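Table S2 (continued). Query chain:
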Amino acid sequence: MLYERWQRIARDNQNLTALTDFSTDRRWTFAELAATADSISPNAAPVQFPQGAGAGFILDVLKAWRSGAVVCPLESSQSVPVIAHLPEGIVHLKTTSATTGAAQLVTFTAEQLATDAENIVQTMGLRQDWPNLGVISLAHSYGFSNLVTPLLLHGIPLALVNSPLPEALRRAAALVSDATLPAVPAMWRVWHEAGAIPENIRLAISAGAPLPLPLEEAVFQKSGLKIHNFYGATECGGIAYDLSSTPRTDAACVGAPMKNVNLSVNGEGCLEVRGAAVGQSYSPEPSSNLEAGCYRTADLVELKDGAVFLRGRASDQINVAGRKVSPETIERVLLKHPLVRECLVFGAPSPEAERSEIVVACVAANTGGDSETLKQFLLAQLPAWQVPREWRFMESLAPNQRGKLSRAEWRVKLGFAAPG
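Corresponding output:
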């Protein structure tokens, strides 16, 4: 199904530029890309593992589709997982973003993969005359669904920048007319501070981590460019998207449900996602959180006025002497202070009381670190028990390879938890 659809796309758009790889200064029309893919000797392996950031990744996907192999994209640093058995009809595997232990695989049929691409193209309004600039990982769910499948299944051209550095982005953007730029908040911050956001970006997208309101507002005020927040998950693809033309006023709002995606809240207050793009199951260990077209997330949400508001994660809630608070509640207030560029809040075991936690705040500040100033700022807006007891200041909070700030990883990195 997938390769046949690609062949139709290639025939219908044969003379248009399909793929540009700025690292090698090579371009392919749709006809040339199809001919190149057809000329590659097939691989007999039942599961194939595209890696890297160049055109070879795209060709490896097409080679796997042509031979009927299952595609399992991997980051360059990822080792090849051991796959003992897959159910009939599975064509795609995504690795979860587990921070401890072996990552689970999420299985997808061709219909599920194609539906997510359809939902994204329809909801975001991706266009052939606005090629995607590829700076995010092609292997991650976000990049595969926003860059790879729109190219191969919808004819949305892709220009691979291969580096998120400001100068690389400037050079690449100068070689196209109008463009779409999907990225993560950390990239948008660097580009904004470097004055490197190209003027010909017509559609700006941010996903992978919460988009801070001050950053969204600053970019809009400086360049008039609205960054659209995108919320999704490995298990189900796109969930919600902010279609508004002006900056949000509530950081908890992540947008309205994607087209053809049905959302509800279960008895625990967590979001449930239903639709034809929801993955089949986990492998090798199935879970009731993902079955029968429903993904039960750990995200605490409120559905209000046609929009989705994130209220934290059930697993991240901090237990302070029997009272629970979501770290996002504290982070949203901290990010309002002009001193704070980035922040991450998590719970750590209390030295005084068993089964209780203290609140820890990691802050990347604009001009050094001043915990007393930030404490007083929080006390004016939050109950005293929610104010962090431990503070760690640093130059930056580096996201992991998936563009996320992982509480679990930073908890270990700062010595508040043991590795593994």
